[in-house]
Amino acid sequence: MAVFNGSVSKGTVGFKNLCLAVFICVPAVCWSANIAPGQGIDFSQVTWSFAGASGDGPSGTGQVDVNVSQLIASSGISSGFINITTASGWVTQNLPVLPGFTYNDLTTTFNLGSTGGVVTNLGATVTYTATPMTSAPIGVPDTFAVGSTETNAQGQGPNLAAAPAPPPVAGINFPGGLFGFAFQPNHPNIEAANNQCGPAAAANSLDWLKTTYGVPIPNTNVLGLKGDNSLVGKLDTSMNRTVTDRATGNGLNVEPQLEGLMSYLSSVNIKGLTIKHQGLSPFGGDTFTGANNVAVGGITSQGRGTIVDPNFIISEIRAGEDVLFGDDHHVVDIVGAGTILGAPFILYVSDHLQTAKDAMGNFINDNKGTGMIDFSFIVPQAGGQPKLVYGDQNGATAVDVISVSVPEPVSLLLLLSGLIALLLRARRSGASCRRAA
């Protein structure tokens, strides 16, 4: 990897570092498997544990976790789509297990159908199909155990004053079209302090660029806080987040996050990255807008419009860029994106369970909440910002996208790797259909 005067070139990137990018037509389903308990699908009931929801107890939101390796081993099927129906209806729609996916824990949320109290089991039909479905699967339900999980993930704009509503049932209409996706392997996901999602997402982003392209980030991406020498601590400082300790700290508006990211890069003499931003902040006192360029310390971020565009996210991920996504209360690092029957989606990492204190004043949760990849559909809205459907950010409104990339795009290499993956998938799919016939 060549580094010259603080600039970085993509010229020597190897195939192993590239995202996998594929767009394919969707044929009729040629196989379908029912997934039973113990075959890679687990359910939990979510308790929202941030201050605004304290005392609410178990919610009506459920979480489904896919152990990808266990699912593949038990079904013999390496990729496909998970659909789940319960007494409430079609609660999980086309959750994708992508070809060649390198992450093992995939998760999203669903409507648990509970109006209060603890849920310990769930009758559900879990169907795993070769291609996405356009209507709810029908089958005899199995009884799955339901565990418990906590979620406390915020830190952009004002803190949430109440627990989010459960996801809708059958909340996505599929307009039809290609199934296309791109994902990037090896994204880190550090433990975040309370309300530290913005600096943590930026730290994950820069660490991925360092690992993938050799960007010379000098600080280590480990658990940290404002004032220390960790990467997230340096970003906490450059973004000027107000912090008392790991369990007590404020969130940030968008503009200080963008300017703080550029200020950090300038301070370590990394000025050759390409930065772009999109969106418009609704937060009081926040001047962030994608209508204008932003310049800090000899670095300029290019404004790409005031409406967050899912197609922009997909194109940036396909091109091997790192993409930060912020909504009206949280910031995440996107690891994949695409469309399913025309409906855009994102895959992302963040800490589900930020640092808190127990009744004795001890810090807790600094070893929880980072082991999964979240899935959400991102649904455009007429005349406004897109909204997320499903995932731990269900119901949130998009606010901003920040893309950080190494110059000299590797588009030809990405295209070649995508075509190879497409041909291999098509051959396997055809063979599976012939065997099923």
Would you give an account of this structure?
With 437 residues, this protein is an alpha+beta fold. The chain folds into two domains: 21-151, no CATH class; 178-417, Cathepsin B, Chain A. It contains six helices and 25 strands. It has helices at residues 68-75, 197-213, 231-238, 254-267, 310-318, 411-436, and strands at residues 3-4, 7-8, 20-24, 32-34, 41-48, 61-67, 80-86, 89-97, 105-111, 121-129, 142-151, 179-183, 243-245, 248-249, 274-279, 294-296, 299-303, 322-327, 331-340, 343-349, 356-357, 363-364, 373-381, 384-389, 398-405. The strands form four sheets. It has a 19-stranded mixed sheet that branches. The longest helix has 26 residues, at 411-436. The protein is globular and about 60 Å long. Residues 1-18, 23-29, 410-419 and 429-437 have low confidence and may be disordered.
Task: List descriptors.
437 residues; disordered C terminus; 19-stranded mixed beta sheet; 6 helices; two-stranded antiparallel sheet; Cathepsin B, Chain A; 25 strands; 2 domains; alpha+beta; globular
* CATH level-four homologous superfamily name of the largest domain: Cysteine proteinases
**What is the end-to-end distance?**
49 Å
Q: Could you tell me the number of beta strands? A: 25
**What is the subunit arrangement here?**
single chain
CATH topology name of the largest domain = Cathepsin B, Chain A
Which residue ranges are poorly predicted, with pLDDT under 50 across at least 5 consecutive positions? 1-18, 23-29, 410-419, 429-437
Strand content: 25-35%
Rg value: 21 Å
The helix content, as a percent range, equals 10-25%
How would you sum up the major sheet? 19 strands, mixed
Helical/strand content category:
alpha+beta
Q: In total, how many domains does the architecture comprise?
A: 2
Mean pLDDT: 88
Determine the number of helices (DSSP H or I, runs of at least 4 residues): 6
